[in-house]
Amino acid sequence: MSVAGFLAYAGLATARDQSRTAATIATERDVLTELFAMRRQLGWAGSNLNQAAKILNSGGDVPHLTLVIAEVRRAADAVRRAADNLANQQSDETL
Predict the structure, then answer these.
(1) Tens digits of per-residue pLDDT, 44-78?
(2) Could you tell me which residue, 91 or 38, shows the higher pLDDT?
(3) 82 and 33 Cβ atoms separated by less than 8 Å
């Protein structure tokens, strides 16, 4: 499942579950809001990396590209782990 698909699924599941407290739902909404924001920022980072690739392909230089790629990967992994943790919490609650 893609991150976007998971976030949509998690948001809808949260809206349907009336048995949880408002505080729990608010906390999950905060997490979902942050995950959406991180996803958007990763999209911008991907766009910037595409621009760097264009520069490299035209013979230009992109200083610190390896470091930037490592940081983008680290951020993407953090988003993936957060989404997995949220998914696991929700699946544990449904069991």
Answers:
(1) 888 889 999 999 999 999 999 998 888 888 888 88
(2) 38
(3) no
DSSP character string of 26-64: HHHHHHHHHHHHHHHHHHHHHHHHHHHHHHHHTT---TT
> Residue 73 and residue 19: Cα distance in Å, rounded?
37
Distances (CA, A) of 13 to 21, 31, 52, 70: 14, 14, 39, 34
The model carries a pTM of 0.58
Exposed, middle or buried by CB within 10 Å (0-12, 13-18, 19+), for 83?
buried
The pLDDT score that the predictor gives to residue 52 is 93
Q: Cα(63)–Cα(53) distance, rounded to whole angstroms?
A: 12
Distances (CA, A) of 5 to 8, 15, 69, 70, 85: 5, 15, 25, 25, 15
